[in-house]
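Example pasted here:
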Amino acid sequence: MMESETADKALLERKVRRAFQVLVLQRGRNPGVKGWEMKRHLGREYRKIIEVLSEDVAPMGLEVFEVKGPDGTDDSSRFLLRFKEPPTISEAETSGIRIDDLAVLAATIAFINSKQGRVARREVEQFLREKFPKWRVDYSLDRYAKRGYLEQDDRGMLHIGWRTHAEVDEKTLMTLILSRAQEAAKK
């Protein structure tokens, strides 16, 4: 009995290490791994392995986060490692993202959320051009749509993308923006 428990524990540890490797190695443009890929690499019990991995990476300030797929099935869900706490501005700057690009994304997310999650792209462009040059607005919106932070449907409507839901704490972002607006109004 003792040997089988030891063998099961060793197998679980190998699968947890494998899950970590699969999540860390990026394939293509989008981070994370689809549910069907996790099942292929780890077996049917992949959710149990993900739970163990999430507990293992918690002391490092990380978590395994699941973004539900468009059809709501486990196979279409995407799993990725993310920080539990949002990075500071200086940490974000060292990631290679320009601060003005972050500002465009933050303003876009806030604007879309203020319009109940859907807004015409031309409205977003008009809003952003009050603060940013035209070339920056066009470049950033296209880039963020390609990377999954924004989604654009065939009618030209922008929505919040899966990657924003996964990587951005939208509630905190909105709270910070509102608190800054209140401070500015007091002055």
